[in-house]
Amino acid sequence: MFIRYRSVSLFSFVAVLLCEVALLVLTSDGISSNYAQATRDNAARPVIVVTPREIDFGNIGPSEGTKSTFVIKKNNGAGNVEWSVNGPEGWSLMEVQKLSGSLLDKPENLRIHISSLKEDLYNGTVNVRNSYPVQMTLEANNRPVSYRKRLAAGAHREMLKLVSSSGTRTIFVRFKLVSAEAEPIIHVGPSRVDFGIVKPGDQLSRRVKVTNGGTSTLKWNVSVQNDLKTGMTAKPGRYISFLNEDVTGSGLYVPPSNVKDVMDISGTWSEINGYPSSPTARHVLKYRFRGTGISVFFSVEPDGGDLMAYIDESHRNNNQDCHAGHKERAECVVAEGLANGPYTLTIVGREGAHVMIEGVRIYGKDVMKGNPGWISIFPDSGTTNRETDFVNVTVKAHQSNLGYYGENLVFESNGGQSVIEVSLEVSGDNVPKILDVYRYVQGADYLYTSNPQEDTKVIYARGYRKQGIAFRLFSPGAPGTTAFYRWYHPGKKIHFYSYDRHGEGKSLKGYTFEGTIGHIGTSRLTNTRALYRWFNPPSGGHFYTTDPNGEGHLKKGYRFDGIAGYVR
Q: What stretches of 311-468 show up as alpha helix (H) in DSSP?
């Protein structure tokens, strides 16, 4: 009996032990599973990111304002994120509610506008010596919320808290309140100077204006930027100005000679100081370029406004809403990181926006620094009170290689620092006047190019076969010639060529503009011959040749379609 009792007890003990182990394993698996699930849930939770974390708004004088933008976006997760932003501590909220929003897949802009108000616009305390009523306006999704506070002259750093379901983010704004009576303020313009296309040996000059926004004496000096000394680097890409000095004051804008072949404007564009301006959304400006991206420089009139810009019809849904503040100049990056190729920038003004477009910066173009002494400045220092002073900037291309050049001029003063960007293109007489045009074929499509290196990716991607030199075109600027344009239809996989930008009445629906391949004679010039165009009705494709018999294409179903121009 005793032995049996011990046997049963041992069996029970083992059974209980096994149950406890199983329970422990089950519990452990459950904990592990729950922990893994929590980890996955946490990883999938949307997290907002604000860039940059801090912005320096610079000097703000009496009745002046400045504006900049933070970008709010998600770095992971699905679903929307509700957020709100608290104004700076100690400032009075002028509205009923603080600013809030809902962040979906598209980033949002949080715009900050800081301005020094006139005393008669401020409803706070009475005027205090050497202090100023300041307003900070936060705006998102076209909803502005304002805060006010009286601040002493000097440097300030304010913190804003962005609160959301994914946590709190802090961002900072810095600015300096200056007194017009106490300090000078330097203003230099224009902020960018484009000398256009020059030839080796050319010498050109432009004037830069220097004014004083304060009442005490402004002392300044200017020099070509020294990267090691200033810690600044030149801007990437080539700046191109839309300024046309010949139409300044006329009220009607016409593209200048440096961009007239690559710019189309619809409607009547007015001009402000020689720059294009459109007050209505019905007017469109198109600019054709080759590169990896582009940005737009613009400013607005006192009533404010913005514009819409996008690259090609295929990128229209990725348009950029570009904003600027009161009398503020801004740079809007429309596209970057694209494959190097031809694109068309489209700019559309908002109704009543009064946007003035200063120019563009094209990315993907290597910009060089000139040899020492290629830029001279006179005078390089001075004092300015209430008058306007002018600085003459002269560029000399005597020892420059061909290509794009850029440099910064740095104005140092007791009223702040200003930087002027200088750009130009050096194009010499030794550039070939005659361009070899190569023919490539793929099925019914014929690709003609004077620069196979630029079209290398397209040639290999579409499987074109090289057939050699088909004819020769002229370089831009050759007398009696005009640009010879190229279009491509992705659906039909065929090209079309014409010196008429509108296609000689041919419907270009579905075609993508690919720029120019050179210049062609519009009439018979010395030592030129006709370039014949042949058309294939079944494919819709065209074939171009100097052979009046079409190189046997008549037997392939082609029919004569006229003379496209005159070539070498």
A: 456-462
Place of tokens 């993907």: 364
Collapsing DSSP to helix, strand or coil, 372 comes out as coil
| Mean of the per-residue pLDDT values of the chain | 80
Sign of CA dihedral 538, 543, 547, 548: positive
Tokens for 240, please give them: 């191109």
Residues whose CB falls within 8 Å of the CB of residue 321, separated by 6 or more in sequence, listed in order: 306, 307, 308
Average pLDDT over residues 174-178: 86
Whether pTM exceeds 0.90: no
Domains and CATH numbers, the chain: 48-177 (2.60.40), 186-426 (2.60.120.260), 434-567 (no CATH)
Phi, psi of 428 (to 5 degrees): -95, 170
Nearest by Cα to 243 from 276, 221, 278: 276
Query: Are the beta carbons of 176 and 209 closer than 8 angstroms?
Result: no
Nearest to 179 by CA among 154, 202, 206, 157: 154
The H-or-E segment that residue 29 falls in is helix 2-44
Q: CA-CA distance, 210 to 187, in Å (whole number)?
A: 6
CA distance linking residue 425 with residue 239, whole number of Å? 10
